[in-house]
Amino acid sequence: MNYDVFYPPSIKSALENDPPGAWIPDVPQGCIRLSAGYPAAELVPTLQLGASIEALLAEEKDLPLQYIGSHRAVMLRDWIRRRLMARNMPVAETELLVTAGGIQAIDLIARVLLDATATVAVEAPTYMEALEIFQNYTRNIITIPVDERGMCTVQLEQMLQQRAENGLPLPRLVYTIPSFQNPTGSNLPLERRRHLLELAETFDFLILEDDAYGELSFASDPATLKSLDGHGRVLYVGSMSKVLGPGLRIGWTVAPAELIQAINWFKKDLDHAFVEASISTLLTRLDWNQHLTSLRNAYRRRRDVMLQALDQHMPETVTWHVPDGGYFIWLQLVGVDTGALLNEALQAGVSYVPGQYFFVKKEQGRTFLRLSFSSVGEQDMVEGVRRLADLVRTRTLEKKGV
Amino acid sequence: MNYDVFYPPSIKSALENDPPGAWIPDVPQGCIRLSAGYPAAELVPTLQLGASIEALLAEEKDLPLQYIGSHRAVMLRDWIRRRLMARNMPVAETELLVTAGGIQAIDLIARVLLDATATVAVEAPTYMEALEIFQNYTRNIITIPVDERGMCTVQLEQMLQQRAENGLPLPRLVYTIPSFQNPTGSNLPLERRRHLLELAETFDFLILEDDAYGELSFASDPATLKSLDGHGRVLYVGSMSKVLGPGLRIGWTVAPAELIQAINWFKKDLDHAFVEASISTLLTRLDWNQHLTSLRNAYRRRRDVMLQALDQHMPETVTWHVPDGGYFIWLQLVGVDTGALLNEALQAGVSYVPGQYFFVKKEQGRTFLRLSFSSVGEQDMVEGVRRLADLVRTRTLEKKGV
């Protein structure tokens, strides 16, 4: 039977894109997984979670397994609001929605703001999962260059001015990961943050701030766009995925109450009372600042190990910037097609994510790749970088005809 | 700031409906909650879940908290497939998608099949959450009468024929709860099931079969539409909400692989590895058939208690049918506006769901209400029915001018 005839045009159009997760390399057993943006196993508070759930069920019995009634699940919202307040983001109850991960929050925001006629702007490169989402709604995606200090807001301004002058549609939404960006690791300086907020007022767009890595700084804490926003322009997305564990599927979005109400209209997985109550209980038993300090120290150390390995093993044609937080290092390999190289790398026992997946125009990412220093142990990480460097060197030599 | 200007027309239209959950009564503390379609507290295997999670985390450590890697989470799919097979629904891996509850599955199916130009058909009355979902996509909702034996398929056929003759759009999707329907408790006989499947072929529509209550039969097990479907017309939705607990948010949909792929395209909360692995572990420790038998016996007994209380206390103007499974009894109260009565009932200490919420045309539900016998203990249930009966009797007497 042909089901195509049942799909509305907008769905048919979305189904023409690459399928979800096309970027995930098919990593063989035993391969060193520098592709994975996962927390380190030893930094996931597994035992505390188990103990918390035991305490929760002893206290609340079946309530966290029902639709409503779990006090602990409700308390998660209070915890998140206190945490946001501590980061200069005072938020009313009606301005917060807990979601099943940050990605769902991005999808729900796209759902209420975008259709096939809408224009959205994203960084180039940007988070491939967000790109997948926006491509489900519209083909009108414009891109803003990113350098080692994040989104080039001057270029954004020029582009918006030109579009306005030429009568081209302006973006309704600008998606950005200002702090320790995925994939570049770049951190937007304060003056660019302020500039972006000014542009939102001038050109009347909303900003989707993805702050998945904002608390994982190795130096000073960046001020979120949300904390600087005086005009209700920012829709903020946070997540437990990088600071607790992604399999829990807990994220949130903060926005003006009217937008939160609209977003919640379309959230049909409902509240995940059991997981929310479990995490809420865990958070009463965890010193969050101490937990964050452990994460920062551990990931800073891993970053340093990876940087050292890169310095030691990579040929000079390969370049990168030092990230001040987050999970990733973004490599440029002059003259190497990282998409074509991936299979060889997997055979050589190391995985990465080819740059192409982080761009709307894939060819822009041809010579880039993303490495993650978050999840692999130090020894393996060094060995993974060495394997990759060997491969790159061979490839570069081949090119030179040696 | 006015955010309306940022919404696409389809979203603006959806936001004109009642907000989600408008049907949920604002139940005061201590009120007897005959409105709640929850499992009984003592039938939720809370302790076994706690023990299962302890075992899971000892075995798999951080893996269930990561994106992928939990063997137990994967095993849930196998368990569901074995269970479907036992109910004469052999299903390939590619034909199953685990969702965050049955409601999400309904929403995702609506997402890939409906837009503002599409027509969908639903039972009248039908599940109010499903109605909310369809109304988010289209205003073209046609309704099929339900009697004590479920959807009136003969009337559906007549309507479809008339629409075809008059050049009116035919539904792309027919949503039904054939077994122990919410809210009527009716069970579609085999001949109507076969008739509906024939109509799908003749009039070229797909069927969304919501089987949330299918395993909670008090007599014989009905054959699902999916098990009778020889032509790939049925998209099946199942759920753990009524047989384990809704706060876990575990459901699934079964459909031809092509449709499952399309549905998954838009599922952006990703896989809930932790909950899936937890439930999967629980299921290895639970004798499912025995668990179902306990549920059936307990809910049958509660149904009987409610029926007896209704017989004893309700005036003769109130009528109902005896459900052979599920959670609900559907009352008709001649001459009583159940929406208007609700506040008094809540003050008298009993809650129900007014009939209006189960209909596209709300006035059709004016004299109906839904009672749930699933979650309230026997004594409270009898007392709740007595309170409601007292109120109804007063109201009826008032009408008669006594």
Describe the secondary structure blueprint for this structure:
2 copies of one chain form a homodimer.
Chain A: H1 9-14, E1 32-33, H2 46-60, H3 71-86, E2 96-99, H4 102-113, E3 120-124, H5 128-137, E4 141-147, E5 150-151, H6 153-165, E6 173-176, H7 190-203, E7 206-210, H8 225-228, E8 234-239, E9 251-254, H9 257-265, H10 273-284, H11 288-313, E10 318-319, E11 328-333, H12 338-348, E12 350-351, E13 353-354, E14 368-372, H13 378-400
Helix pairs in contact in A: 2-10, 3-10, 4-5, 4-9, 6-7, 11-13, 12-13
Main attributes of the structure:
homodimer; 402 residues; alpha/beta; Aspartate Aminotransferase, domain 1; Aspartate Aminotransferase, domain 2; 2 domains; 8-stranded mixed beta sheet; 4-stranded antiparallel beta sheet; 13 helices; globular; transaminase activity (chains A, B); transferase (chains A, B); PLP-dependent aminotransferase family protein (chains A, B); PyrdxlP-dep_Trfase_small (chains A, B); aminotransferase (chains A, B)
- Classify the helix fraction of chain A into a percent range: 40-55%
The 3D shape of chain A can be described as globular
What does the main sheet of chain A amount to? Answer: 8 strands, mixed
By CATH, the superfamily of the largest domain in chain A comes out as: Type I PLP-dependent aspartate aminotransferase-like (Major domain)
| Strands in their spatial order, largest beta sheet of chain A | 2-9-8-7-6-3-4-5
Q: Write down the domain tally of chain A.
A: 2
InterPro entries (chains A, B): Aminotransferase_I/II_large (IPR004839), Class-I_PLP-dep_aminotransf (IPR050859), PyrdxlP-dep_Trfase (IPR015424), PyrdxlP-dep_Trfase_major (IPR015421), PyrdxlP-dep_Trfase_small (IPR015422)
Domain Aminotransferase class I/classII large (chains A, B): 92-388
Protein name (chains A, B): PLP-dependent aminotransferase family protein
GO molecular function (chains A, B): transaminase activity
